[in-house]
Amino acid sequence: TPSVVWDERFGAPGLDYFYPAVSVNYLNDMAVVFGRSGSEYAGIRYSGRRAADGAMQSSALLKSGTGAYTGDRWGDYFGIGRDPSDAQTFWIYGQYALSGDSWGTWVGEVNFDRTPDVSPPTFSNFSPLQTTAPSRSTPRVTAVPGAPRSGPGPS
Q: Could you give the dihedral angle defined by the CA atoms of residues 121, 152, 138 and 37, in that order, rounded to the nearest 10 degrees?
């Protein structure tokens, strides 16, 4: 029978959290990406926990929002997937608010730093791809100049 293996409440007072996406790697490390807004423009944040630690880390910013979005739909555009070539790496993406009542999608890579194994986990991130959508139009994908690596990103 299915059972709950882990349950934790996460967040800060006065902020709104939405559309989480969660994935677990072969070591039972867990990563999560989600949107956050409130006293800040809607942006993308992520967190995680190593199986051995048992506690969520404080969230980190992947991409901050840069303006207010007052459109009639805010999408459920958040996702996460494991990198097929590296079982400890997760690809994450999410939606953030841009100025001018439009939004963008940002893709990043996160992984657990396991060196040395006694230190608390840290994340590294970068964004090799950026999708922006002018207000009410079809998204277009452009490469971010100077990205250290390009990759497939989640589908």
A: 0
Q: What is the pLDDT of residues 82-128, one digit of tens each?
A: 888 877 889 999 999 998 888 899 999 888 765 433 333 445 554 44
Asked whether the beta carbons of 92 and 24 are under 8 A apart, the reply is no
- State yes or no: pLDDT of 134 exceeds 50: no
Round the CA-based radius of gyration of the chain to a whole number and report it: 16
Q: What's the rounded Cα separation, in Å, for the pair 106 and 43?
A: 10
CB-count exposure of residue 66 (10 Å: 0-12, 13-18, 19+): middle
pTM above 0.90, yes or no: no
Please state, as a whole number, how many other Cβ atoms lie within 10 Å of the Cβ of residue 21. 20
**AA identity, residue 75:** G
C-alpha distances (whole Å) from 27 to each of 6, 21, 22, 110, 115 are 15, 18, 15, 15, 15
Q: What is the DSSP letter of 7?
A: -
In single-letter form, the type of residue at position 110 comes to V
Distance, in Å, from the CA atom of 137 to the CA atom of 155, rounded to the nearest integer, reads 20
Contact indicator for 92, 108 with CB cutoff of 8 Å: yes
* Dmax (CA) of the chain: 50
